[in-house]
């Protein structure tokens, strides 16, 4: 009976180690393909005389791009993509996101853009990653899909 328990423990340990190895080498962030914007009246700092601000209705906005930033995207420090080779395969667009390059300690961020930046969803990239690249595809209706893969 002891032998069986030890064997199960080895199998469990092997499964855990394989799982950790796969997780460490495969990191992905997937941009949501749609966001729903609720109806509202935009707030303008100054409304020109004899004009009024029109409301907009609930609307779905489709993903139209993704980019990587140094720090939160609101600070506008978008990184320039460069071609890169990972495991013999060329990727573009790609970005170096090594924490050694993060001299300000602000991290690297993914931004998913909707309707030409009318809305952005942002997420910090894991600081253990060294390089990331975007994989674009289309859904069944021709809408853009984007995922950021990193190592």
Describe this protein's structure:
InterPro entries: STY0301-like (IPR049973). By secondary structure, the chain is of the alpha+beta class. It has one domain (22-35, 56-150). It contains 1 helix and 10 strands. The strands form 3 sheets. It has a 4-stranded antiparallel sheet. The chain has a 4-stranded antiparallel sheet with strand order 2-3-7-8, with no helix packed on it. The radius of gyration is 22 Å and the shape is globular.
Features:
1 helix; globular; single chain; 38% strand; 151 residues; disordered N terminus; 4-stranded antiparallel beta sheet; alpha+beta; 16% helix; STY0301-like
- Secondary structure tally: strands: 10
Note the main sheet: 4 strands, antiparallel
Q: What's the helix-strand series?
A: HEEEEEEEEEE
User: Could you tell me the mean pLDDT?
Assistant: 83
How many domains, in number, for the residues?
1
Helix content: 10-25%
Strand ordering within the main sheet? 1-10-9-6
> What is the overall shape?
globular
- Whole-Å distance between the termini? 42 Å
Oligomer: single chain
Low-confidence sequence ranges? 1-24
In DSSP terms (H or I, runs of 4 or more residues), the helix count works out at 1
Percentage of residues in DSSP E strands = 35-45%
Radius of gyration: 22 Å
Overall SS class: alpha+beta
Quick summary:
The protein has one helix and ten strands; from the N terminus they run αββββββββββ.
Secondary structure layout:
Layout (H helix, E strand, L loop, with lengths): L1 H24 L1 E4 L3 E4 L21 E12 L13 E3 L2 E3 L2 E3 L11 E7 L4 E6 L6 E8 L5 E7 L1
């Amino acid at each position: 009976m002891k032998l069986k328990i030890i064997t199960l423990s080895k199998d469990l340990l092997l499964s855990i180690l394989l799982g950790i190895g796969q997780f460490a080498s495969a990191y992905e962030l997937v941009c949501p393909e749609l966001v729903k914007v609720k109806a509202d009246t935009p707030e303008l700092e100054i409304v020109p005389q004899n004009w009024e601000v029109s409301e907009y209705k609930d609307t779905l906005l489709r993903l139209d791009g993704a980019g990587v930033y140094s720090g939160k995207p609101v600070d506008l420090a978008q990184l320039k993509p460069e071609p890169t080779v990972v495991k013999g395969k060329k990727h573009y667009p790609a970005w170096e996101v090594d924490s050694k390059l993060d001299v300000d300690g602000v991290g690297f961020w993914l931004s998913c853009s909707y309707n030409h930046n009318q809305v952005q969803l942002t997420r910090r990239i894991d600081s253990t990653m060294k390089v990331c690249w975007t994989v674009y595809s289309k859904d069944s209706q021709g809408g853009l899909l984007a995922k950021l893969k990193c190592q």
